[in-house]
């Protein structure tokens, strides 16, 4: 593992950046799966916060390292392990490894075995590498879901838009790399924008532009560009990944089942967003 890390760091320094989309999405699904197996009623929201932080670390890691060389399951475990620490959600590493093996439907090696010890060693090596990549100053991750929920509560948006925007926010973190190039406030605002467009509604604000409820630095142009990128990404996403996400996010109420509708439906939504873009 250390040889692979050294090689990838050298390639990154030379400008060779790897971005295998399928492996990233598989890793994101594994992170969600590990988190879902640790959920209890009391800690469900807290677990999603840890999952979100894990996704943030994973995306940054895979900007530098080769997804084919370092297995998504190991990156998922290391990312989740760090997130448990940074989000004050302490869990034994053995619990995480057990959850990962359960997700893969394989028996976990005995904790005294050489195989298990090697897994733990690799996780610790990846943990150190991830910390080096993201920098200790960026360990604290803003939560787009929390930002979104606060704005929704303060403005009493309709339930359909609220529910839809929450799950779109989750899918943005899973399926795109927007988190690497935009603020969490922008991701939250884009989630609300897409949800409103789908429901045929306009977002209204009594005091100025609606997106300034999220941040005064945001522009409508940035939000529209992000919305277009997300809808195109989701439209082209592999059907197996969509199925995995549908299962991981459990049974959705009818008001936001449309998140997993057909390619044609998402093409229609993208058309609405593009028409809105050209109209301004």
TrEMBL record:
Identify the species of origin: Schistocephalus solidus (Tapeworm)
Superkingdom in the source lineage: Eukaryota
Kindly give the SMART domains that the UniProt entry links to this protein: CYCLIN (SM00385)
Q: Which residues form the Cyclin-like domain?
A: 29-132, 146-232
Any GO BP? regulation of transcription by RNA polymerase II
Check the record and name the SUPFAM superfamilies matching this protein. Answer: Cyclin-like (SSF47954)
Concerning InterPro entries, the annotation shows:
Cyclin-like_dom, Cyclin-like_sf, Cyclin/Ssn8
Q: What is this protein called?
A: Cyclin-T2
Query: Keyword annotations for this protein?
Result: Cyclin
Q: Kindly list the GO molecular function terms attached to this UniProt entry.
A: cyclin-dependent protein serine/threonine kinase regulator activity
